[in-house]
Amino acid sequence: MEEIVDRRILRTKQMLREALMELIEQNGYEGISVTQLTEKAGLNRGTFYLHYRDLQDLLDKCSDYMLEGWLSIMRDFNPLEAQNSKYLNVPNPQIVKIYEYFKQNSWFFKVILGPKGDPAFPLRMKRAMHDHLEGNRVKFELDDNDFLVPSDYINEYVLSVNMGILQHWFETNMTKTPEEVAIISTRLAQLGPLGSSGMKKLRRANKP
């Protein structure tokens, strides 16, 4: 019986999360009321207040939940394995798993990172990724003397590139598969923008 109740609670919370994102996409966060939300979800106001204090509490907990799902995948990511050159043409399963998570939960990420979403959320993602990168630096016992470029610049580059890829993928309605995006992100990571664009090959061809 307890398991049935737990499943009902999980389903109720998911209905409220999805209704919130639909309304944000339509009206923006500021234009939403609890009544609109519960009507959209097919629930009553009392049910909403059993789980959340207000709309901001729902948004915060929804964001926490989705971030934790992403970070749980990132914790298993091996940056050393990601440097393997075979992944320039074959999708890295670890990166595919990350983009599959974003695709499965695009109802949230596409909206929250979009023009009517929460401006604070991309910053939260960046902070979480920054902490993850710094954790890797400690894990692999790297210090600033090991870097050709200062680590804070590397972190900012990695954060900006990956956020840009993700947002562009959503803006283009995810026409590319997670496998294709995994190869794109790997090529940019391993070859950089010049190597990925073919400019280096062009430069060699024009070399006197």
Can you characterise this structure?
One of its GO terms (molecular function) is DNA binding. It holds the Pfam family TetR_C_8. Residues 33-52 bind DNA. Residues 10-70 form the HTH tetR-type domain. The chain is 71% helix and 0% strand. The chain has 208 residues and is mainly α. It is built from 10 helices and no strands. Helix 1 (2-27) runs parallel beside helix 6 (106-112). It folds into 2 domains: 1-52, Arc Repressor Mutant, subunit A; 55-205, Orthogonal Bundle (Tetracycline Repressor, domain 2).
Amount of beta strand: under 5%
Largest sheet: none
CATH fold name of the largest domain = Tetracycline Repressor, domain 2
Low-confidence runs of at least 5 consecutive residues? none
State the end-to-end CA separation. Answer: 78 Å
Counting H and I runs of at least 4 residues, what is the number of helices? 10
Overall pLDDT, averaged?
Answer: 89
Instruction: Specify the overall morphology.
Output: elongated
CATH architecture verdict of the largest domain: Orthogonal Bundle
Tell me the domain tally: 2
Structure summary, number of beta strands? 0
Tell me the radius of gyration.
21 Å
Helix and strand element order: HHHHHHHHHH
Fraction of helical residues? over 70%
| Structural class category | mainly alpha
